[in-house]
UniProtKB/TrEMBL annotation:
Keywords, ordered alphabetically: Membrane, Sugar transport, Transmembrane, Transmembrane helix, Transport
Membrane protein topology class: Multi-pass membrane protein
Molecular function as annotated in GO: UDP-N-acetylglucosamine transmembrane transporter activity; UDP-xylose transmembrane transporter activity
Family: Belongs to the nucleotide-sugar transporter family. SLC35B subfamily.
Name of the protein in question: Sugar phosphate transporter domain-containing protein
Location(s) in or outside the cell: Endomembrane system
Length: 280
């Protein structure tokens, strides 16, 4: 949908935020006004989350090729690991680093093999700006996960509350692009609206699951699992839409399996946690 209608990215994000906010009000009820985590603690997290979401949308407006967009975003796992390494000053295990890098390479190769070639000229400055924005969102996304992890450790695990506030508080910011969104909403066809509604429901369950997962695993492991999910979604879509499976998919699958085994240290006979760190 983004490839054919890149201008509707902000509308999609707004409707996703609105749907999650409405569901949060129904779920939390009176607890909406008595959060476990102080509201002031949410502002840094919300700023990172909102900037990451909007920046990714803006890349579509720059008409950066979808293939490049997906390949760069597949590097989220090693980026999250290295940001965590830098911020917490703890060195991850070598097998975790290798697994994270290998799986990202596997996803990137599979995405490249499954992408359609779009013959569209793009201005070089737009291309550079888009790449820089995507690289920046990798870092802000990693810091978003770390901030979530910090809040959970300090104030307790409340995924429903965090899901609600991270989507409800940014809603007024969309007023800046409200006229544009109204114009786009009126121009969308019925088929696009059908896809959009399905996307909203899918995004709700995805966001909820990610927040629950964040209470059980580190931000680095969550990012790794999301990278695996991205790969599985690519394979499923290739089968459902009857796209041809190429040698790129085979190579990508092998790398994803090997990377997953390395990351979770399945080659070791000793049972270990998904992420362990050794002291410097």
């Amino acid at each position: 949908m983004m490839a054919t209608n890149p201008e509707c990215a902000n509308l999609v994000t707004f409707l996703q935020f609105l749907c999650i906010t409405a569901q949060g009000i129904l779920t939390l009820k009176h607890n909406v006004f008595a959060p476990k985590i102080p509201l002031r603690q949410y502002f840094f997290l919300i700023s990172l989350f909102f900037v990451t979401s909007v920046a990714n949308n803006y890349v579509y407006a720059l008409h950066v090729p979808s293939t490049l967009h997906m390949i760069i975003r597949s590097a989220a796992s090693p980026t999250s690991m290295f940001v965590c390494w830098f911020v917490k000053n703890r060195v991850p295990k070598v097998n975790s680093i290798l697994g994270s890098i290998i799986i990202s390479c596997g996803v990137a190769i599979a995405m490249y093999g499954g992408a359609k070639v779009v013959e569209e000229e793009i201005k070089f400055l737009h291309w550079c700006a888009g790449v820089l924005i995507l690289l920046a969102t990798l870092i802000t996304g990693a810091f978003t996960g770390l901030q979530q992890e910090r809040l959970y450790s300090e104030y307790g695990k409340c995924p429903e509350e965090m899901l609600f506030y991270t989507h409800a508080i940014p809603l007024p910011m969309f007023s800046v692009v409200l006229p544009q969104m109204l114009t786009i909403a009126g121009s969308l066809s019925t088929s696009i609206w059908s896809i959009l509604i399905l996307n909203i429901f899918a995004q709700f369950y995805c966001a909820h699951s990610v927040h629950v997962l964040g209470t059980k695993e580190t931000s680095v492991t969550v990012t790794f699992i999301l990278t695996v999910r991205k790969f599985l979604s690519l394979l499923i879509s290739s089968i459902v839409f009857k796209n041809s499976l190429t040698m790129y998919h085979v190579i990508g699958t092998v790398l994803v399996v090997v990377g997953t085994y390395l990351y979770f240290d399945f080659f070791s006979k000793k049972l270990q946690q998904p992420i362990t760190y050794k002291n410097k």
